[in-house]
Design brief:
7 strands, globular, binds adenosine monophosphate
Length: about 220
């Protein structure tokens, strides 16, 4: 059975950290459109250059750009046994694109499709964003207050100097929340109406949420 998991939730709800862990646990890829777009920006590709101004303004990048990126990624061999999507879909239009794409890629295959909504008190999220640091080499995420690296400023996994994402400033984060509530939050009802939504209480520490997540996913 091909496992298709969609992780939904506001910026900094903890889905990146948990997706990483769950993907390793289930041995399926973690597909994260934000990281795919940042990789394009780093390469200086035309797609990356196009995405840059939207990302730095906290807006969604144009749908055709992200649709192409996700199509290429989900068509790769390592996604044949399933995947966890983090950061896609982010609008009803993108959810419809995903349905069409899955209909093509999954013809004749049995699938188990679920959307997991990370439910968190919005008041804690802005503080999480401004304290967030990430490793540009391996993607590990830290929080300087609640989940700091063992050595200040260095990744525990690979020793690389940690960075603060350019869009993790207070001003851009506020715009990202507006974008989330306007365009992404309607997906909660969209998946609820299809009977595939599970809500995860994502409040609390990483370990607590991890234990609840395994239960919600049925592991
Ligand atoms: P994230 O790393 O998920 O917080 O994404 C960072 C930024 O990348 C977002 O604020 C958007 O500008 C852009 N982005 C990521 N995923 C998508 C998507 N599915 N659709 C449009 N823009 C996206």
């Amino acid at each position: 059975m091909k496992k298709e998991l969609i992780f939904l939730g506001p910026p900094a709800c903890g889905k990146g950290t948990q997706t990483d862990r769950l993907a390793k646990f289930m041995n399926i890829p973690h597909v994260d459109t934000g990281s795919l777009l940042r990789a394009e920006m780093k390469k200086g590709s035309p797609e990356g250059k196009r995405a840059e101004s939207y990302i730095s303004n906290g807006q969604l990048v144009p749908v055709e750009l992200v649709a192409e990126i996700i199509k290429l990624r989900l068509s790769q061999d390592d996604c044949k046994g399933g995947y966890i999507l983090d950061g896609f879909p982010r609008s009803l239009e993108q959810a419809e694109i995903l349905e069409k794409l899955n209909a093509d890629l999954d013809e004749g295959i049995q699938t188990d499709f679920r959307a997991i909504y990370f439910d968190v008190d919005p008041d804690v999220l802005l503080a999480r964003i401004v304290n967030r640091r990430s490793c540009p080499a391996c993607g590990t995420i830290y929080n300087v207050k609640y989940n700091p690296p063992k050595v200040e400023g260095k990744c525990d996994n690979c020793g690389t100097e940690l960075i603060q994402r350019a869009d993790d400033t207070e001003e851009t984060a506020k715009k990202r929340f507006d974008t989330y509530y306007e365009q992404t939050a309607p997906l909660i009802d969209f998946y609820k109406n299809k009977g595939v939504l599970k809500t995860l209480n994502a409040q609390g520490g990483i370990e607590e949420v991890w234990e609840r997540l395994k239960e919600v996913v049925g592991l």
